[in-house]
């Protein structure tokens, strides 16, 4: 069984389950998919034959980041002046963006997933959850199958959120008919994907999450049946909550979104919501009590102009919190590492308006690692310790960028920010990115293929 010895790491962020600490000038040994040992002067007898030694002098080694909310397909709708949030109302923007989404074909979903995963990996993300809710009729039902294919290409740990929308625009949703599915279509395909791909074993590379897009764009039965299927199959639940829709839900159903979902049973330790920026403290407390988690996506605040999510309150109430990039419709990059920096700095910006203090920078690193692992129901990722998955990334800090910063590896990414790609990213004990290249892949060809797929769609 092959492995790697990262020799003389300048710092390793370790966590034996009691919170992160920093070990200085240590070695890190992997064997197969797992971490075998972390320490100084590992004895020769501890190092299996066939282990590849890597000089890690100057390296800060971190647990791989866990992305808990994204929309990969939106990578094909980036940097578009005609879709600028600042020049359109939300309704105008939705009317323009959804018809574009509805024109994507199967190849677009594959190549946009390749695009997103490539950027995530370059910036230290080793596990990605994608909320794929766009199923244009002409594109067929095998869109998430193609996403698993993209993940296999890179060797990425992938959790697929099978989303969908069932409420017609004529009944109040924002979804074009071309993108609608019936509840039965949606549930049947969720079941198919669970049977085909879901693996609950340790070090699993493939899992499926039942993820109806959002209550405001689906019939109630879609959420009821989602709960039934997920609990029957032992998989997680996910949806969008608290991103401006609660007044609509209140007008339509006489209750806000959190109340609506709690009544259905779409809440609990097996459930996590995306966004939640408009929720009241009472709603947050109830979510904490039920064990429902939150995927916080900080960067859409810049484009959407929404209020800054109250992370201090979530932390004070004990909510499980992870981080997500969100899709390119509201964040034009797939750089989760950048979200750590944005997330912390945005909280500092509005700290004087908050009832609770901003969590320390190191907590934002935890949101993107152990927090994300918790949301995805994983106890084998998110930490660097013997027996955990060998998911990690390394930054060579022997550069001018890091002068004066190296005394505090835990705060480096959230407080200072990292402006370049990692020097190495490892997933499940395999190096997938090192020295500016993907292992066994030609990035120029990946780029050309993705651009060709994009060019084939009339935007």
Automatic annotation (TrEMBL):
It comes from the Bacteria. Pfam families: Amidohydro_1 (PF01979). Coiled coil: none annotated. Keywords: Hydrolase. GO terms for molecular function: hydrolase activity, acting on carbon-nitrogen (but not peptide) bonds. Residues 60-432 form the Amidohydrolase-related domain. Belongs to the metallo-dependent hydrolases superfamily. ATZ/TRZ family. This is Hydroxydechloroatrazine ethylaminohydrolase. It comes from Martelella mediterranea DSM 17316. The gene is atzB.
């Amino acid at each position: 069984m092959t492995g790697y010895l990262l020799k003389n790491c300048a710092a390793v962020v370790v966590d034996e389950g009691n919170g992160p600490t920093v070990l200085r000038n240590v070695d890190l040994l992997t064997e197969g998919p797992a971490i075998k040992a972390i320490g100084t002067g590992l004895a020769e007898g501890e190092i299996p034959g066939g282990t590849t030694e890597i000089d890690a002098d100057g390296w800060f080694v971190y647990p791989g980041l866990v992305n808990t909310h994204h929309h990969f397909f939106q990578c094909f709708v980036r940097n578009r002046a005609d879709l600028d949030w600042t020049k359109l109302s939300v309704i105008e923007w939705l009317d323009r963006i959804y018809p574009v989404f509805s024109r994507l074909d199967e190849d677009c979903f594959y190549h946009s997933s390749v695009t997103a995963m490539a950027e995530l990996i370059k910036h230290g993300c080793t596990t990605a959850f994608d909320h794929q809710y766009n199923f244009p009729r002409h594109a067929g039902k095998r869109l998430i199958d193609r996403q698993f294919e993209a993940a296999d290409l890179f060797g990425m740990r992938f959790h697929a959120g099978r989303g969908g929308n069932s409420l017609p625009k004529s009944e109040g949703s924002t979804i074009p008919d071309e993108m609608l599915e019936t509840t039965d279509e949606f549930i049947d395909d969720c079941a198919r994907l669970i049977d085909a791909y879901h693996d609950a074993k340790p070090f699993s590379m493939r899992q499926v999450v039942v993820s109806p897009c959002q209550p405001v764009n689906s019939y109630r039965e879609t959420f009821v049946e989602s709960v039934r299927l997920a609990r029957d199959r032992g998989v997680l639940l996910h949806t969008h909550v608290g991103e401006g829709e609660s007044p609509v839900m209140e007008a339509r159903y006489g209750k806000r979104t959190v109340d609506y979902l709690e009544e259905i049973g779409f809440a609990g330790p097996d459930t996590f919501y995306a966004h939640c920026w408009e929720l009241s403290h009472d709603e947050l407390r109830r979510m904490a009590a039920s064990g429902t988690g939150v995927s916080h996506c900080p960067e859409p605040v810049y484009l959407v102009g929404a209020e800054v999510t109250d992370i201090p309150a979530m932390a004070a109430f004990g909510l499980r919190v992870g981080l997500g990039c969100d899709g390119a419709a509201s964040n034009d990059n797939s750089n989760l590492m950048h979200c750590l920096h944005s997330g912390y700095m945005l909280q500092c910006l509005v700290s004087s308006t908050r009832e609770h203090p901003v969590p320390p920078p190191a907590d934002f690193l935890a949101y993107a690692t152990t927090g994300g692992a918790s949301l995805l129901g994983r106890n084998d990722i998110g930490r660097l310790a013997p027996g955990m998955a060998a998911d990690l990334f390394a930054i060579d800090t022997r550069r001018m960028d890091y002068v004066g910063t190296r005394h505090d590896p835990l705060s480096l990414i959230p407080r200072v920010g990292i402006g370049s790609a990692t020097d190495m990213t490892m997933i499940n004990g395999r190096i997938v990115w090192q020295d500016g290249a993907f292992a066994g892949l030609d990035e120029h060809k990946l780029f050309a293929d993705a651009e060709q797929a994009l060019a084939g769609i009339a935007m």
